[in-house]
């Protein structure tokens, strides 16, 4: 195409600048229509060619490669993926199923979708719900079975509709329409050891998803899957009720799935269906599933859903858990709404690997000690952990034996809410027992426990029980009734024989909504004059709890503190940490007979060991009858936990021993024994020796602490022994010096039941009584030996704390064997030290002892001086 010379309208100039003539104008270019069309055509063709080449290089090539890789992987896995003859992955022939609505109206929804460039996926598939007309009513599968049921009639098909509720055993008869709360159920499942081919096949996965959805009576509106590179599939199904999604790792044999549905119906029954449909086994070992379940959103959770069960095991991805039973009563009775039993591996101690090894007979450690590695079986009532097989023995031993041993001779025992049978098993280990009455409201709980926890009521190894099952022992009477009904209707407020020991294994009466006052009053009618009452209190208090008044545990604290009002002379609490709960458990023991029960409660280990061997039936096998409980365990219960004291003192900051606290103040001087002399008392020759300061001693100093912490202590049993020996051998026998020493140089108290004595192991044992309020040590008391009133003064009772007037864990933790005294004012050099003997007289002998002191202060011969003169 040659340029056409066209005239220049302004005229051209030649090289000399002259204006040229029109004939001399330059070339003119003429653009024809044909030229333009040709240009456009050629440009379009060029752009198309460049685009095509670029696509081949940049997109189709790699994609083709990915698809080919994918195809190779599939064919190596034996998958049913097919490529068209062109080899283009877009032409994959997938037999993906459509979600189908049978005889259901198409839900009204607004569908929106946003896609990013998905061209790098090896496959992209979406399917939308289609409607299939049918004359028969829609059928849905019962999870875990091959049976179908009528989905239109949810009442007859309660196990199908969006998951089944636990088996309903009783109905209130009222139908409640579900309120549509913004809440739902979320099931998370991870399955491993799944067949790779299955995990790479979108068709098979999608079919499994549709089956799961169908099994639960859910409505799948659409689903969208991406086959990923290098492998794996991601799918999301949109449900009318929310969503289902999963992701697969074919080469690792893993699928993770989650299903979320709105509404309150449980998805738990679906676990089995998902496991069955998605857990296509890779090897003969079968798939392994871990799952967790959450109740989500802002709904109307039941108390069970808020309790232990929904934290563990249901809410936790554990290696092994299996529902054994789940039953629900549809009543308003929140006490016993639901019973669940689960088998679980305890993640802290057990692994699935060890469990599997224990099942083989390969002589491995695990196979030799199968019982250690087997799953734990746990019973939940209304979602609250009640008992677990792995710790039931320590639990029931801790519940039963301390109370039984606090009684000298427990013959009649009443068990309240101890339906499982394990408390009965422990009671029947005591040779003294002649009658056991069990009052149990929950007959069904008893039968479930007997069936699923047979070892609880197994008495076959007990030499003292003729029957294999504890319930069949002729001494046992089981009454299925509410305790109040039973007491009222059948016993007119209880007029039967009293019980020596009453054991309550249900915090409902004391910590729940019930009136604990009514309950305690009933117990106090049923218990004998020397009876012992024990109740489990639930999770032990911890150091961070507020005072009872501000605590959610207020009822419990109030209940414990109310016991003295019902005739209990001493109330103690104890804790045990090895009961299979996440926190230590607290028990409370209340004694009708202060002396007997507290003496037994605090008896020394050797004595307790002896009593155990005398009172407990041996086993037929020769194994120990008691597993966790022994004398040392009992000793561990003798002091309440510090947390118990701390919380009590938060509630009662002024109560005995709360303001003082425990321990020694390092700021206070500790005066050594060398600062004191022992010589004739200033009280006169009838008073014998006294203690004098040989240097100035400041107020509040500790006196001879290093020695004072090692007193000579006669515990009640030892004190008894000495008294008995003197009675038997006579006052002339040298043994009498022991009695003399413990009585006249010691502080006689009854903190631990019967009389006991603590004697200072240094010269402080020579301290005399300061007559007429002359005491300069220890505590200020306004009452003196000249007081002759018959009623014991309150201030004396307060310092004479016998652990009976009130429940007081701070006092129980006080080191009663320590008799340290401090000066009430600065003492001068040469001054005699006096304490107030009134602080330590025996309250039971108040009148005699105060009279004797009065006489001595009036110059009568002192006991010590009299004794020494006789000798
Ligand atoms: C713990 S000892 C004190 C040391 C005793 N004074 C001594 O000579 O060994 C208690 C005995 O001291 C005597 N005693 C203590 N205070 C007394 C007092 N205020 N008046 C008379 N005798 C007293 C009594 O004999 C009493 O039994």
TrEMBL record:
HAMAP family: Spermidine_synth. Residues 340-592 form the PABS domain. It holds the Pfam family AdoMet_dc. InterPro entries: AdoMetDC_fam_prok, PABS, S-AdoMet_deCOase_pro-enz, SET_dom, Spermi_synthase. Residues 1-25 are annotated as: Disordered. It comes from Nitzschia inconspicua. Its cofactor is pyruvate. CDD domains: AdoMet_MTases. The lineage of its organism: Eukaryota, Sar, Stramenopiles, Ochrophyta, Bacillariophyta. The active site is at 505 (proton acceptor). This is Spermine/spermidine synthase domain containing protein.
């Amino acid at each position: 195409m040659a340029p056409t010379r066209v005239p220049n309208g302004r005229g051209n100039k030649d090289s000399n600048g002259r204006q040229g003539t029109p004939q001399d104008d330059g070339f003119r270019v003429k653009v024809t229509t044909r030229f333009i069309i040709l240009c456009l055509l050629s440009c379009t063709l060029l752009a198309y060619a460049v685009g095509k080449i670029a696509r081949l290089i940049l997109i189709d090539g790699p994609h083709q490669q990915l698809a080919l890789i994918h195809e190779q992987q599939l064919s190596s896995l034996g998958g049913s993926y097919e490529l068209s003859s062109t080899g283009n992955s877009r032409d994959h022939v997938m037999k993906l199923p459509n979600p189908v609505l049978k005889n259901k109206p198409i839900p009204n929804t607004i569908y929106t979708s946003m896609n990013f460039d998905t061209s790098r996926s090896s496959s992209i598939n979406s399917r939308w719900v289609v409607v299939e007309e049918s004359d028969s009513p829609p059928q849905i599968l019962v999870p875990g079975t091959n049976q179908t049921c009528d989905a239109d009639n949810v009442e007859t098909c309660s196990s199908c509709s969006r998951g089944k509720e636990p088996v309903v055993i009783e109905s209130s008869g009222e139908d409640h329409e579900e309120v549509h709360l913004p809440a739902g159920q979320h099931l998370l499942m991870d399955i491993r050891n799944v067949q790779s081919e299955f995990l790479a096949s979108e068709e098979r996965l999608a079919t499994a998803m549709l089956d799961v959805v169908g099994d639960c009576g859910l409505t799948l509106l659409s689903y969208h899957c991406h086959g990923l590179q290098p492998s794996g599939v991601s799918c999301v199904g949109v449900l009318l009720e929310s969503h289902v999604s999963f992701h697969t790792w074919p080469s690792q044999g893993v699928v993770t799935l989650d299903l979320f549905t709105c509404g309150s119906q449980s998805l738990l029954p679906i676990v089995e269906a998902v496991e069955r449909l998605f857990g296509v086994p890779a090897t003969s070992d079968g798939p392994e599933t871990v799952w967790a379940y959450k109740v989500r959103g802002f709904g109307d959770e039941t108390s069970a859903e808020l309790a232990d069960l929904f934290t563990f095991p249901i809410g936790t991805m554990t290696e092994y858990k299996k529902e054994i039973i789940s039953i629900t009563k549809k009543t308003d009775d929140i006490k016993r709404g639901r019973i669940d039993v689960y088998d679980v591996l305890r993640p802290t101690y057990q692994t699935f690997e060890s469990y599997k090894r224990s099942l083989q007979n390969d002589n491995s450690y695990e196979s030799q000690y199968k019982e250690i590695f087997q799953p734990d079986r746990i019973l939940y009532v209304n979602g609250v952990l009640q008992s677990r097989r792995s710790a039931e023995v320590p639990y029931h031993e801790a519940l039963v034996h301390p109370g039984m041993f606090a009684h000298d001779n427990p013959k009649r025992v009443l068990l309240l809410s101890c339906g499982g049978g394990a408390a009965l098993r422990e009671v029947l280990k005591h040779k003294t027992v002649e009658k056991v009455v069990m009052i149990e409201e929950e007959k069904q709980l008893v039968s479930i426990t007997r069936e699923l926890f047979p070892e609880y009521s197994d008495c076959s190894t007990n030499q003292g029980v003729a029957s294999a099952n504890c319930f069949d022992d002729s001494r046992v009477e089981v009454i299925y009734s509410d305790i109040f009904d039973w007491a009222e209707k059948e016993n007119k407020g209880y007029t039967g024989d009293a019980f020596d020991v009453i054991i309550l294994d249900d915090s409902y009466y004391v910590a729940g909504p019930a009136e604990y006052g009514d309950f305690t009053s009933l117990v106090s009618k049923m218990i004998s004059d020397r009876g012992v009452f024990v109740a489990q209190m639930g999770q032990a208090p911890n150091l961070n709890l507020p005072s009872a008044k501000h605590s959610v545990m207020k009822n419990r604290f109030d209940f414990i503190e109310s016991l003295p009002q019902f005739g209990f002379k001493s109330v103690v609490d104890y804790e045990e940490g090895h009961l299979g709960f996440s926190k230590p458990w607290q028990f409370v023991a209340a004694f009708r007979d202060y002396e007997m029960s507290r003496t037994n409660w605090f008896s020394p280990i050797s004595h307790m060991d002896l009593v155990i061997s005398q009172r407990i039936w041996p086993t037929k096998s020769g194994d120990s009858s008691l597993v966790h409980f022994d004398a040392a365990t009992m000793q561990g219960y003798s002091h309440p936990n510090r947390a118990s004291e701390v919380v009590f003192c938060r509630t009662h900051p002024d109560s005995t021993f709360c303001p003082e606290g425990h321990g020694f103040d390092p700021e206070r001087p500790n005066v050594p024994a060398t600062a004191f002399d022992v010589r004739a008392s200033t009280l006169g020759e009838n008073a014998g020796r006294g203690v004098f300061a040989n240097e100035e001693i400041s107020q509040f100093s500790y006196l001879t602490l290093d020695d004072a912490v090692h007193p000579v202590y006669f515990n009640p049993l030892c004190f008894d022994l000495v008294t008995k020996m003197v009675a038997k051998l006579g006052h002339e026998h040298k043994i009498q010096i022991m009695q003399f020493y413990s009585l006249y140089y010691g502080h006689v108290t009854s903190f631990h039941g019967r009389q006991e004595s603590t004697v200072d192991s240094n010269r402080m044992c020579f301290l005399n009584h300061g007559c007429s309020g002359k005491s300069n040590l220890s505590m200020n008391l306004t009452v003196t030996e000249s007081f002759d009133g018959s009623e014991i003064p309150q201030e004396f009772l307060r310092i004479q704390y016998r652990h009976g007037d009130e429940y007081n864990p701070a006092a129980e933790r006080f080191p009663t064997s320590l008799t340290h005294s401090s000066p009430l004012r600065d003492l001068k050099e040469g001054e005699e030290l006096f304490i107030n003997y009134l602080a330590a007289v025996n309250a039971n002998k108040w009148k005699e002892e105060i009279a004797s002191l009065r006489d001595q202060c009036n110059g009568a011969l002192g006991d010590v001086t009299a004794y020494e003169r006789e000798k």
